[in-house]
Every structure is written in structure tokens, then in C-alpha cells.
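Risk register update: the risk that structure generation would not scale has been downgraded. Supporting records follow, first protein first.
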Amino acid sequence: MGQRSRVRVAVIWSISLLAAIFSGVLGGLMVTYLRDLPTLDALQEYQPGLVTTLYSDHDEPFATLFEQKRFWVPLDKIPRHLINGVIAVEDAQFYQHHGINFRGIARAMLVNLRALRPAEGGSSITQQLAKLLLLTPEKHLSRKIKEALLALEIEKRYTKEKILELYLNQVYFGHGAYGVESAAHAYFKKPVDQLNLAEAATLAGLPRAPNYYSPITDKERAIGRRNLVLARMVDQGFITKQQATAASAATFDEFLFEKTRNLGPYFVEYIRQQLEEKYGTYAVYHGGLKVYTTLSVAAQRAAETALFDGLREIDKVRGFRAPRAHSSPATIGGTSSLSYLIPKAGEILNATVTTVRPKSITVQVGGYQGDIALDKVPWVDPTKPHQQLQTGMAVKVRVLGVYKRTRTLDLNLEQDPEIEGAFLAIDPRDGGIRAMIGGYDFERSKFNRALQAKRQPGSAFKPFVYAAAFDQGFTPSTIINDAPVSYPILVNGKRTEWSPDNYDRKFRGPTTLRYGLEHSINVVAVKLIERIGVDPVIELARTLGIESALRREYALALGVSEVTLSEMVSAYGVFANSGIRFLPYSIRKVVDNKEALLEEHIPAGQRVMRESTAFVLTNVLKGVIERGTGSRARALDRPVAGKTGTTQAATDAWFIGYTPELVAGVWLGYDTKRSLGPHESSATLAVPIWVRFMQRAIQDSPPEEFPVPENVAPVMVNYLSGRPTTPNDKDAIREFFPK
């Protein structure tokens, strides 16, 4: 054998040895990776996390609870255009390969080399499914190898249709939407089976880079991506060029992309807490529960509009406050990432001041501009516009008009109030909570002031004193002398005198209980509790649902003991419901994702007050509206009863009122107690908010009288003296007395 032949043999043997070594190493690595692969049992047993949905009192969905927002749909409910679009852009050889798309990997490498950046992925749909369901998201070569091996195993065990179903229900589409059904609702406000070709192509283009290609983030980029999907679908023979051309001409309905504020966030949080306590966190966020609540969507919206507008109006009286935040110079005069969205009339939006002039300012709202004349903003000092408003300042504006052609807006200036408020409405006939607001802004403060805040109710507590008195035989015509009085009390261990005073600093002499309650006369209430005793008032309050600590003192009659709004509204519901109490509740029933009933609330009322006492008290509280401190509620022009409450130094303002079908209460104040103003009262602050709510909440209900029980009798009496009189008496009213 020649030297050349020996060299050739040596080279061959060397190559063979290296190949054997490489094969051994590769085989060893393969064995190692196969040993470390997760089993497909997890895929076989895969249960997607499902959204828990909250429904209103009329079974309308209004909120969801989820970790990943996903609604499972079978493959036969997903439009063929969407399936084909995903295949065309993500894995054109999906039906030809066995888990790994080598042609797609080669194409992606070429595209990425040309772009000098990762412009396209080469993973097959099956590989992506393996990564989504079975692997962690870290980017290492070892994970890519495992991904490929798992894809091969998945293809052996599952049909192509099952792989597509799993993938389309799992993949992320951006903006919190997982799966095609959730994505269809997020982007187009419709079920997935109602998508047209253009919409399906838009969604098909998202999984590669959901936020980058989102039409909510960048409309033009999303159009380009959609049209690429359509072109790929033509190349694959899924659609014709004519279909692609027509779909490419479709525009996005920008109104569908508006970010809507969640309805009733404090109520939703209240529901969530109850569900988690009973069913656990996993069931709430993954179990797909259906929770049928007592919330009225119409009442909740009415409450939010009334309270938030009212708080802003009250705050404006205190003048303009320069916000702490300024926009960065880069955004001044420019457009935000949501610049193409169209504002709507009535919205309150963030804006940036771009120009300040002596009599007006110009602000930028996304891609729109608007001028605000300062003479329309009386709460801004017109002599100091440059001191109060500065270029770059972040402000709130209310949209009054929208001009899309010129991209201009009619605007007015707004500001978030410092004052806080809470609102609660309950159906007294069953205890169902119809509306709940725990504060001005849930994101600013999640503290639920309707349920958790304990504040002094002031004169709103007086009805409990009067009800206890009526139970003991007193009547609305009973006379109490409204005159100065003093009581010995201990303050910090020292003996002193307490002399209750009236709001207007006047004394009226002999006064009927009706007049005393209608006009909220403090001295009458204190002398009344002195006569009947403090303990009967506390005992009655407890039976009506007041659980907070109540101080055993005469000042209890003036509302010095702190209570919650929910306690007060629930107790007033007993007055409205003829003395029968229903415990407040918020969940009617809960079913699981297979429609099995998990719980159901059946309201059960209990009589806790004599029917005659409840009616006589209600009849007097109607007088609060007709002639007293709640007279602004006469605007409802229907039978209404209620009571105002203003605390010492006006730190708290309350109004709780009711009709036979609805009891509602509003509280206003600062979280850190301070006066609402030296001349403010609940009559001017709380009552108007309550009236606005009721005007919308019960506008479709006919006026309803409070039912008169058989064991009371009407008598004509003189309003001031309480003595029987004739109908000819100009001060005659019809009073009711127990028989």
C-alpha cells in the first residue's frame, strides 16, 4: 500500500472516529434531553384557566375576574379564515411536517439575516404550543432542543385539529387577551365566530408580537401586518386576490378600541373577596365561575355619574390646584401611542398644556388639540393664568365636542377632587345591593368607604331616637320644649357642663316631635333621648343592623358614635319596608363552568320593628323632604322620605333617603377629617347628589306610596301645635297615630 493510500485510510478512519464520537455525544445529549422532557400527561390533562364572570341583577355580564383573560372555544366555532390566516403567517407547512418546519426555519434565518435583526420566527405551531404549555420562557439552546423534541412527541399523539384548537385557545394576543375568543372581544367587541376576513387576518398577525402589531397601539403598523397575512393567505391558496384586496381596504373602527372604565370596581372587589374566602383564589381566577349578583347596571351608572360629578363640583368651589405631574417635553405638542383614538363627548381625559395665553390655554389630548377659554373656568384665577397654568402641565379636561376632520376638540378644564365620597343603594324589599361606590377613584384608593369607613352620622342618626320614642307611645305631635339645657358630664376625668345647641343657634320653645325631626333641631332630640333613655335607642339600633360601638350618652342622639354607610342604609331600609329587615347581600347565586349550582341566596325577612312605628316614622321623614332640611329632594315629585346629617364643624355630610323600592345613602368628607366649609351642610352638598341618582335610577318606575298599615289612623292636626284641627286650618296636615 502506497503512502497516499495509507494517508487516505487514516483520514477516513479519523473522520469515522470523529463521526462516531459526535454521534455518541449527540445520542447522549438526546437521551439526556429526552429524560428531562416534561411528560405529555400535562397536555392530556390540560385545563385552561377560565374567566370568572359577574352578572347583574338582570343577568348582564359587567365584570370579569381572571389571571389570564381566556374563554375556551372548540375549533369548529373558530372561523376558517382565522385558522388559515394563522397557518399562513405562522406555519405554512403545518399539515405537511411532523412537528418541526425545517423550511420555515430556513426561511426565517434568511429573513433575519437580511434584516440584521430577529424579524421572523421559524418555530412551528406545534413547537409554539410546546413552549406555551410545557416549557419555561427562557431563551437557551437547550430549551429550543426540548421544544423541537416535544413537538415531535405531540404530533405523534394528537391530531392536527387538536393541536390547532389548543394553540388558538392558549396563545397571547395582547392587551390581556389569551385565546381567540378573548381577542375577538378585546379588539372587535364580538364573538370570534362573527369575525370577518379583515378582522380574522388582524388577529392572525398578532401572536408573533402582540403589542407591536396591535391596532390599539399602532394602527398603521397593524394594517401592514394584516395585509401581509392576507398576502400569505393568497400565496397558500386560502383566499383569492379579490378577497384580499377587499379586506385590505377595510378600516379599523377606532371606537372599538376605547378603554372603558370598569363598572363598579368597589362592588367587584367586594364580590371577589367573598368568592376567594369561600372558593379559594384558584377557583376565582381559573375556574370559570358564573356569579349572579344583585348589582343594577343602570343604578350603578347613575350613582357613579351623580357622585363623581357632585364631588368635582364641590371641589371646584375651593379653586384650581396645580397638579404635581408634568408631561415630558417629548410629548408636548406630539402624539401619544394612542394618538389616533377619537375622544368622545362627555369623557374626562388626561391632557397636556401646550400654550398659555392671558385669556385661554391650548392643550393636547393624544392626536387632538383644543382651546379652553379661561372665562369659562371661574374657579381659575383669571388674573394669574401663568402662575396657575404652565406649559407642560398635565391637566384633566372634559370633552364637549369632537371635530375629526380638523382633529380639534371643544373642552373644559377639570380636576380630580380632594374630597372623598361613598354611595350605597339597596332594595329594602329583599336586601339586594343595587349600587356601591367606595370612593372617587378605585385606582387612587381601594379603601371602600361605603363598607369600611366609620364616620359620625350627625343628625342622620336621629330617626333611631324618634323610632324608639314612638315605640314607647310618643307621637309626632308630642311636645318637647326647645330651650337651653345643660348636662353634667366628665371630660378627661373632670366634671363640666355640656349644653347642646341648634344648628341655627335659635330656640323655638314648645315644639312637636315632627317639627323637631323635620328641621333637625338638636335640643329636641337630646331632650327626647333623655326622656326615653339611651339603652332603648341602642337596642333598637342593634336590631336594625347597627353593629358599630355606640356611646351611652345623650349626645348619641346627635350622631356622635361612628358608623358605616352600609349600616345606616341597611337600617333605613327597615323603615322603608314597614319594619321588616332583610340582610344586605350581593350574590344571588354562583354556578361553576359546567352550570352546576354552587350556592344560591334566598332572601328571608324578619320583623324587627312594629309596622305602625315604621310607618309613623316614615311619614315624619317624608316631612323632612316636604318642609325640612331635605327639601331639595322635592324635585323627584314622588313620595320620598329621608334625613340629612351634618357633623360638628361640617367634617361629614350625609343624606339617606328612600322610596318603597329603593333606599340610598351618600356620605361626603375628607379621609383626614377637616371641615368641608364653614357654611356647608348636607342639605347643600349630599342631597343634590342623592337627587341626581334617584332621578335616573327610578325614572322608569311609577310613583309609589308607602303602604298605610291598618293599625294607624289619620287625624288632621295643626302643623305647629300638633293639636287636632279642621281642614280649613292653613297649617293643617294629616298626621297618623297608632290605634
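Supporting record for the second protein:
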Amino acid sequence: LELKVPPEGSELWQLQFGLQAEADPSLQKPAAAVWAAGAGNLQLGEILVPEPAELLLEGLGRALVAFEPLARGLEEATPEQMQLAPAEAFVLVRTATSRLRDVGVGVVLPPSLSGGLASRLGLAITAELPTGTKGFSLGESLDWQWELMIGGVTISLKELERLQAKRSPLVQHKGAWLELRPGDLRNAEKFCAINPALSLNDALRLTATEGESLQRLPVHQFQAGPRLQAVLEQYHQQKAPDPLPAPEGFNGQLRPYQERGLGWLAFLHRFNQGACLADDMGLGKTIQLLAFLQHLKAEKELRRPVLLVAPTSVLTNWLREAAQFTPKIKVLEHYGPKRAASEAALAKSLKGVDLMLTSYGLLQRDGNLLESVDWQGVVIDEAQAIKNSASKQSQAARQIARPLRQGRFRIALTGTPVENRASELWPLMDYLNPLVLGEEDFFRQRYKLPIERYGDSSSLKDLKARVGPFILRRLKTDKSIISDLPEKLELNEWVGLSQEQKQLYTKTVAASLEAIQRAPLGKKHGQVLALLTRLKQICNHPALALKEESISDGFASRSAKLQRLDELLEELLEAGDRALLFTQFAEWGHLLQAHLQQRWHQEVPFLHGGSSKNDRQAMLDRFQLDPRGPQLFLLSLKAGGVGLNLTRASHVFHIDRWWNPAVENQATDRAYRIGQINKVLVHKFITSGSIEEKIDRMIREKAKLAADIIGSGEEWLGGLEFSQLADLVALEDN
């Protein structure tokens, strides 16, 4: 059915009949052509329609059920069209069209009446940033003009009054037929009486998605001047914000994509909008965040402390990275039994502090204490930790992000892809920008159910448009990133020790040093090497040093290193990557294999000195050649460190450290060699304050030692003076 507007001088509307292709509505044939075809076939584009006349009559019969006035047009044997009174045309436009479409009858309306938001009374806006302003702020008023618009046609308030006086729901204006609704004049008069200002914040909201309204009037057109347009394009990520170079006081270089990330963080900060930096693992989210804080400090904008919440396993890493890259940022760690326990003590310890680190566990435990501080900003690392909106951890993070008195910036860091998981987006956006997705019940009905239960692509598209401006995710495979990265990227993963590890470490050192001091000269060498090996085992897991043969409940909680490994592997596995994991201890390999298989419910092969030749080759082939093969491959450093080609892996983990960097590099080269098309990330675990940190320091300072000494492995350590040995194995509390 196609509705045609009345000819000049007439009030009667024409309703024409015909056939329309369901697959391509632009393919149509009028009823006259259908009757002319008779009982033969009718060509509709490339579609051959048999018995078209019977098909048309059957369709008109269905249409009659949904639109009763059609009965007058079906009095002839071969009806082609009929006339409708204005009231009948209005019923067709307003209510019958949807009923007709429900019974499989297409309806074509005049463009100005074709339904949707455009046919409602709304606004056409033209706006620009005020002249003479160099920068801009969120609440800034814009220079703007507006006009009323309906059906794509502009209309003045006087013209609207005149048309409303006709008391007809369908009226003609400027050559177009429009539908007037009872409240239109009242809404227009109310808007004109208020004559509101338009802020930059309004402009950002109105241009984010279609269908946004201002003072209850939908915005049909928004025309931005050149300066405002540049801001909007950057905000909506149609254009990247200007990159920012490393700020004064930052020790190190930023890669080009990191300069763009810093520019993006600073850009959203100016708008007081929360930002989620969701770069792929290894792209340097920590460094970009530290550069942002240093940028604020250099601009004299960092006036109050910033709270950073992270898993316990990465607090040490934050301390190290901050000391290395931003030494002018004063950092305090709120952790352990000596942490501030009262508001007065916390206020005193925060004097002069720029950044305070704490864990998610303490965010819950010390929530009231931490909320007493007027933080300038809150940052959450590994933000997937708040994805369960009902968890206490998630609620605590979202609560502390709410400002007390002044603006409080909010930043989330995560390496996991968040934009495709509807249910996990709400707590993240509630933490960053609560108004974007509204209350959880509204979000559940509007987005979660339609997307997750019914696969509604339009709801998913709208959701992505709403959250898109606040999430920046770059992948190592992005063309804009890949040229910025070295082929092999080495990352130090600094971890602490659990309480059990600390006690076992200090007890072992005390007992062994005493035994070494008493030992005859010929036995000292062996006892020193045995102590060093045992300490490295404790850094991995107490179970290894205690000679436990199986894993038990709470196995991961006993080792800070294992907790951090689990977090990194979660990110890696979700991204579909593959990884090699090297250890020098076969016993640890077996325990780790059992833990990983139980944790991830997938096969994790372990290649070690005891593997048979056939088993060894089968493991290699499955990992390297089978598309559905295991994502994780455990190898002992000696058995798997040479002679293998494992280029399917894009991550290499050195779970414990070897004295000789050449041995580690040989193992890394299993993945990083000809045939590798991905960038390779090398993760080296270092337990802070322990023998592992001393090993790492020695390796990095090897230029100061004779190369042949380091190159000879561990043997030289047996000859250390007792005081040197005591320094080497002492556990530093840092």
C-alpha cells in the first residue's frame, strides 16, 4: 500500500495498491501491471512471481483485517487505488501502518510522514565555540541558534499556531504534509519561554547518539562550526586527540601510540569524563598513566593525592615503575600491618603525597577510612576486577569514585576486551561515567537482555556508540601500533612474597648461613649453591621448597608470583594468544601443570628432561601445528630451551631467573625467530627484595663484571665471601 498526498486543491488522499519484494522493498509493481499479467507470471526485478493477481488479492484480504476503510476500495474486481478522508489517512499513518506490517503488508508513506523520530516536532541546532576563547571547558556556553523542525521542514512558532488552529492531525506546510500531535504547540511554547543556554556538555551528549533531546524536544539536526566540530570529532573518536609528548620530569621515551594515549587521557580529563585505557597486554598502560600524572604535576594541576587500586600482586610493580619513570611523583603504599588505621594518621601520611597505592581487598576493608580523603582522582588497575556489579569489591570501587566536594577524575586500566561484553560494561561505566548507561535496571532492560538473550544488533550498536568515547583499546596487531613496537618486547613483572613465603625465606636464610659458616672448606661451595636454589624455589611457591607433590585448595594464594601469572594468563587466553612458560625446576613444572589445567580446564603439556622422544614431538606438533591445540606450553629451561621452533607463541614467560642471560635468551628465541609473524612479549618474573632481584641487578650490570664470570653460570657464586653471600641472600623489605 502506498499513500500519496492530496493533489492541489483537494483534501482526499490516494492509497495505491501493488506488489513489493520482501527482500528488496525498492522492487515494486502497481496493481494495474498485476491485473494485466492475469494468470501468467510477473517479473519483479530478478524475481519471477507466479499468479501475481491471486497473490495481490490474498494480501489485500490480510490488509483489510488491519485497516477496515480498505473495504471501500475492494468493491471492484480489479482494484488499483482508493481515496481516503484526512481522518482515515491519519489512522493509517499513526496506528494502522504497524499493524499492516505485522501481517506482512508493506506500507510506503510520504517522506515527511514516514514515521520515526523525524516526524515529531523537534529542533535544528547550529552551534560554535565562543570566539576569543583559546581553550574550552565542559560547562562552557556555546554560541548557538535553533529552529523548530518537523518532518525535515523548519517551522516558526507562529506558523505552528496557525496550523494547529486548523484542528487537523495532518496539515500541509511548505509543500510537505506533516503530522501534528496534541502536545506539540505546548512543548514549543514552553521551549521558547525558557530559551535555554547550550553548553559544551550538552553538545557532546546531543551528538553522541541519535534520538537525544533538549528540554523534551528531539534534536533532528546539529550543525557544528569548524572549531566545535574539531572538538566533537576528537571526543567521539572520529579523530584522535592531539598526541602529547612525555612531560617534563618523565624519565624515558613514549612511543608514538603512547603519546596518543596520553593525549586522549588529558583530553577526556578536560571534559571531566572517566576514561578506560584498554590497550592490549604489553603496550604500556602503566607508563601512560604515570605520564598522565606527571603531565598534571608539570602543569601544576596535581593538587591533591590520587588513589590507585590494584591487585596485591601488582602493587610492587607500580612502586618500581613509578620510581623509574616518574621519580618526582611521591608514592605511598597503603598496605600491610603498619598502614595508617585512623583518619588523622592517614591525613598525616598523605602530606606531600601525589599517588597512594592500595589493594582491592583493602579498598573494602578500609573503605570508610579511604572515603574520608578528598582524592583528586581514582584509578583502578586490572579493571576486570569490578565486572561483577554485585560483588563488594565492585561496589567499593564505584562508591569511592563518586566525588565528595570537588571534581574527581576516574580512570580504569584493563587489558581484556570489554566492549563486546554487555553485562560487564555497566559496572565499568557506572564507575567511570554513571550517567552514560543509567541505572542497572534500565541497562538490563534496554541493553543486556536484548543483546545477550536475543542477539539484538541495533542495541549492541547503540551501546557501543554510547561507551565508545570513553574506551581506548589498541592491539599489538593494529597497523598504527605495529610499526611503533620492537619485534621483541621485554617486560619485568615485579611481584612480592606471600606471608608464608617471607617466613620460609628468612628461616631458610638464617639456618643455612649458620650451617655454611660452620661447614669445612670443601663443602661450603655445594651448600651455597643449595641455598640459592632453595631460595629461588621459595620465590616460586612454598610447596616446591617443602617438597609437596600435589596441589591443594588455596594453592595460588600461597604464592604472589603464581597469582600474578594467573592474572596475566587470563588476559592472554581471552585474547586467543599462545604462550611458552619456562622454569628451571621440573618439580615446579609438574605442580604448575596440575594447577593450570585445573584453573583453565584445558590441556597444558609439559616438556621436560624425562619426556620421551615420541611424547616430545607430539607435544611440539600439537602446539605449533594444530589450530585447536593447547594455548599454554610448559617447558623446562634445559630441555626446551634449545633446538625448537615454536613460533605459534606470542608470549614467553620466564617464571624463575637463570644466572646466565644467554640461557634465558636462547629459550626466548624458541618463539622469536624466522616464521614469527606476531610481536613477541617476554615476561620476566622478579620477586622484589629477594635473591631474584639481586640476580636481575647483576644481569643488568653485567658490563661491570667480567663477561666470562657471568657466562660461567652459578659456579662463581660458591666462592663468594661470607659477607657478600649474606648480602646476596638477605630479604630486603622493599
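Residues 3 and 109 are 5 Å apart (CA to CA). On this basis the risk owner (M.S.) recommends closing the item.
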